[in-house]
């Protein structure tokens, strides 16, 4: 008993100086690490499964249409171009369309995750920054003023309009306080979308040829886009993807709040600006290539959040295959719902997304109550 104070004092000094040796942790203490490692392993397996599902849907998309092509024929045509009618259908018609579906779906879903993170609004969707409205107005202007009729011509005008609209929304919200920034962003995006939508309606009202050309683009479609739209969109999508994935840890810190993020050493304005640039690149390129396709950036982040939790690093990683899966399924469904014709993919995603949006609004209202 006489040695206890002395030993206790020596132990306290060792703890304070950091010189105490750590005893082997008990079996129960190792469980959190093993649990975290197991969770990470399960998510990696799930990510591989999602990528495998994307590959399977790619093959299905190449085979489904007005003329069905068996999967084994699709695989043979991909490996060896025999020049037959199946090869022409698969390689020249469906392969660019399928690749565009993967690119656009991944871009919109990833942009949705980033948009909801930087606004801290789970109902935020990339279209609220004026991307769709800016692209639509630019396309109508290109048709009416410059008589542009090709999809390859639409792409650059649409991307320019999307970028300019996004920059204008950002300029309108740049002077807002931290607490009012999110509200002003939504209001500015809604106001700009309404204004540009009115201008677009005026142009199409007085120019019937512009309306005839514009109406096939505005519904959001992957049909007859060709490789020009894909090659024009891919560089911007890749750049926006890199920015979004690099921002993952910073967006996790930002989710704690601006003050908490700043206390952790986060440059909040720079992170938010970088996220905005990522959204602008992703949405601008996707909208320019395929037209306005709604709800992908809303549905995919919410489904992933329910399955994976709030960690934005995982949400960003899973958004890429998740968005591709949703748009591939929507495009395939559009081809088989109304044969021999088809529904545009933008219409199918609206059928899927509108009930989800209503459910989310009701859920938030009940949670607030």
Walkthrough of the structure:
With 369 residues, the chain is mainly α. The chain has one domain: ABC transporter involved in vitamin B12 uptake, BtuC (Orthogonal Bundle). It is built from 15 helices and no strands. Helix 4 packs across helix 13 (296-308). The chain starts with a helix and ends with a helix. The model is unreliable at 1-33 (pLDDT under 50).
Gist?
The protein has 369 residues and is an all-alpha fold. The chain is built from 15 helices and no strands.
List keywords for this structure.
369 residues, mainly alpha, ABC transporter involved in vitamin B12 uptake, BtuC, 15 helices
Mind sketching the topology for me?
Layout: H1 4-17, H2 31-63, H3 71-79, H4 85-119, H5 131-146, H6 151-173, H7 181-206, H8 208-218, H9 226-246, H10 248-254, H11 258-263, H12 268-290, H13 296-308, H14 312-337, H15 345-368
Helix pairs in contact: 2-3, 2-4, 2-14, 3-4, 4-9, 4-12, 4-13, 4-14, 5-6, 5-7, 5-8, 6-7, 6-9, 6-12, 7-8, 9-12, 10-14, 13-14, 14-15
